[in-house]
Design brief:
Ubiquitin-like (UB roll); L,D-transpeptidase catalytic domain-like; alpha+beta; 495 residues; single chain; rod-shaped
Length: 495
């Protein structure tokens, strides 16, 4: 059996006994509702007062800033916030000692006092115009941040005194000045290299004087010469594209090795020589020095050309003689060689080759031995001709040379066969002679058969000599014609 005393209480009774305490009964069958409080009314009053105060403060601020600069206004690095126009003008004009200018150099900082040049600031309408341009209703926005402005005040100063003062600065003393130097390319020990630029410390005096004048009018108190670009700078830097490209090209030209093959020896062109032939102009165009190359080629010709030079020769009779003159021998074609050499240098590759020759000899055993073991030997004294092939004498015959008078003599020297021709007609002054074997060696002089002669050798040439040719019996001419060819050496001497 339950102890709850309310178990027998009717729902109606319970409802009447447990009404909410904060509700009032409304007669005549009305409903219940919350009690109305005074909190909302107080809040409304508070908000109204706060709004009024904010409006008043905003309006008061606008009224104040109508005659004063906005809070964080800076002009020429001077804070003018909350100042009147008059106060702002005084800030620029009253304490001119604070307008000293520190000139920051690479090595030192020097001070310029505007009073030393009788500088005077005359504030015109600039400050007032700046103040009038501000909207006082924006004053809350300007409470934060920094509103920096620059204006040019009216400044007068003694120009001559300023120039004198600047000229006396340490940075302009001769012993302290180091001029800038451009980067350039030089030939190093093993390759071309860039010598970096030198910045130096030469100051642009006229521009500095102008900058100081501007600093007076803008109240600038520090001039950093580097930041203000007041140093004279090099025109060429080591990282510039033209100089970098020129370096690569110069090293390409100088790194190839060119080897001249002269059979018995070689001449090598490498960096040690090539570096002096490479020219780089002020616009970094890389070229080859034609004059220096020609000088080298001339030296090469003097050393290795043999045409016309004296040679030691051992005659068939065993006598050692000197033979010179004639057109036989090696001769470098300077024009062609210059063209090819420049091409090889620019390729940057290693090349081994012969020079470009205008004339070639049959061999090159040494500096003055280019005749070899195959040649025609002519003794004008003995009126005798020999033919040697690989050191073996295959022909020994008498001959008739030119009559020893001007215009008809056969000249000593070493010549080369120009060409050979079968069945030619030799034409000269007062003669026309057909021959079967024609082998010219000195212009219109040559070796040939002479069917009109019955005898050869002896002293025939002295009275009935040829017009400069070497006349041979037909069989001898035929043998010669069989063995000789263009370039074959003919050695003629008077012994």
């Amino acid at each position: 059996m339950s102890d709850n005393k309310n178990n027998n209480v009717s729902p109606e009774t319970r409802d009447s006994e447990y009404k909410p305490a904060d509700f009032d009964e409304i007669p005549d069958g009305g409903t219940y509702g919350k009690k109305s409080g005074g909190g909302s009314k107080a809040l409304k009053i508070f908000l109204a007062v706060a709004f009024f105060l904010l409006v008043a403060a905003y309006a008061g601020g606008a009224y104040y800033y109508n005659t004063h600069f906005l809070h964080n206004t800076y002009v020429n690095n001077t804070r003018l916030g909350e100042m009147t126009v008059e106060e702002a003008e005084n800030a620029f004009t009253q304490d001119f000692s604070s307008h000293k200018i520190a000139v920051k150099e690479k090595e030192r900082t020097e001070i310029l006092d505007p009073r030393d040049v009788n500088a005077v600031i005359k504030v015109g309408s600039q400050v007032k115009e700046l103040k009038d341009s501000q909207n006082p209703w924006f004053w809350p926005v300007k409470l934060h941040g920094k509103d920096s402005r620059t204006i040019h005040l009216d400044v007068t100063y003694d120009q001559a005194a300023l120039e004198k003062s600047v000229s006396s600065m340490e940075c302009f003393k001769k012993e302290n000045v180091h001029a800038p130097e451009d980067a350039y390319i030089k030939a190093g020990d093993s390759q071309f290299e860039i010598v970096p630029e030198v910045l130096g410390n030469t100051v642009k005096k006229e521009e500095l004087i102008q900058k100081i004048g501007e600093a007076f009018s803008t109240c600038l108190t520090k001039i950093d010469l580097e930041k203000a670009d007041l140093y004279v700078l090099p025109k060429v830097y080591s990282t510039d594209e033209p100089i970098v490209n020129a370096l690569g090209e110069a090293n390409k030209y100088s790194h190839g090795v060119i080897t001249y093959d002269f059979s018995y020896t070689q001449e090598v062109l490498n960096y040690e020589t090539l570096k002096d032939w490479i020219k780089i102009n002020d616009k970094f165009k890389v070229t080859l020095d034609k004059d220096k190359i020609n000088t080298y080629l001339k030296k090469l010709c003097d050393q290795y050309n043999t045409m016309g030079s004296s040679r030691d020769f051992t005659t068939s009779g065993g006598e050692k003689i000197h033979v010179y003159d004639g057109d036989y021998g090696w001769k470098i074609d300077v024009e062609k060689e210059l063209k090819q050499l420049k091409k090889d240098i620019k390729s940057g590759k290693n090349v081994t080759r012969e020079p470009e020759y205008e004339y070639r000899a049959m061999c090159r055993n040494s500096a003055r031995d280019d005749i070899g073991d195959s040649y025609v030997e002519v003794s004008l004294t003995n009126q005798e001709v020999w033919l040697y092939i690989d050191g073996k004498c295959v022909l020994d015959t008498s001959c008739v040379s030119g009559k020893p008078v001007d215009g008809r003599r056969t000249y000593p020297g070493i010549y080369s066969i120009t060409y050979k021709q079968r069945n030619a007609t030799l034409v000269g002054e007062n003669y026309s002679s057909p021959v079967k074997y024609w082998m010219p060696f000195d212009g219109n002089r040559g070796l040939h058969d002479a069917s009109w002669r019955n005898e050869f050798g002896g002293n025939i040439y002295k009275k009935n000599g040829s017009h400069g040719c070497v006349n041979l019996p037909e069989y001898a001419a035929e043998v010669l014609f069989k063995y000789v060819d263009t370039g074959f050496p003919v050695v003629i001497y008077e012994k």
